[in-house]
Amino acid sequence: MRRALSLLSVAGLVFFVTGCGSDSKGSSGAKTLEFTITDEGCNPAQTSTTPGSTNFHVKNTGANAITEFEVLDSTGHIVGEKENLTPGLEGSFTIDLQEGAYTLACPGGTKSPTGTLTVGAHGAAASGSADHDEGGGDCVPPAPASGSAGGSTTEVKAALSDFKIELNPTAAKAGTVELDGTNNGTHPHEIVVVKGVASSALPTDANGKVDEDKLPADTVIGELEAFSPGKNCSASFTLQPGSYTLFCNVVGAEEGAHFQKGMVTSFTVS
Ligand SMILES: [Cu+2]
Questions:
Q1: CATH 3.40.50.880 correct for 2-129
Q2: Which of 70, 188, 249, 264 is 20–30 Å from 181 (CA)?
């Protein structure tokens, strides 16, 4: 079965490869981001680009354990992927990128099984040349919640450090909660907001990060995507009464999963 699928991928490549120009603009006018998958995972794991139609060109340069490269949107849905990339194979797919942050996934990678693609309108550096692992990103807050929240507005300061999340206050009335994050640490950090799942019940993957794909539907309220040390990032969330768990789901090349190192806390809305 796997063999047959690989052959299909090869057949598909003939078409894709011819579409890959040597410069960063393909004949379609779309730009191309180059990635490799290695035993460590996605490379680069942290990169950024501008919105619009984007070709993802992925090559497996020798990873035996990884044959898949996925791009997930902020809600955790796969918006593009290449499967059955055995060592030596390459492939491409195109995504019409919107401003915001996407997650890269190379399941099984020993160091960078996931990464972050930051899409900004301000011409951030594109394609493979960006720093990775420790690169972090600029602040990419989620789109403001639609509709009127009603209720009260509470500003909550979130101090992120290596490796803690400290909230002040730790509770609010239902309504708008403005999460005002500051990265006081030395690594990129982020905040994922989940409702109704206690920290001890969060599903984790082999790398010790929270497996957001395995969370029940509608429990991920939103997130402040990873942002760099010394930076601030804030966003407003409309929160109903309930128990919330906030965590950082960054996996660093050296330090590992921040969640596992203690970057998780709870928040109560009444
Ligand atoms: Cu972190």
A1: no
A2: 70
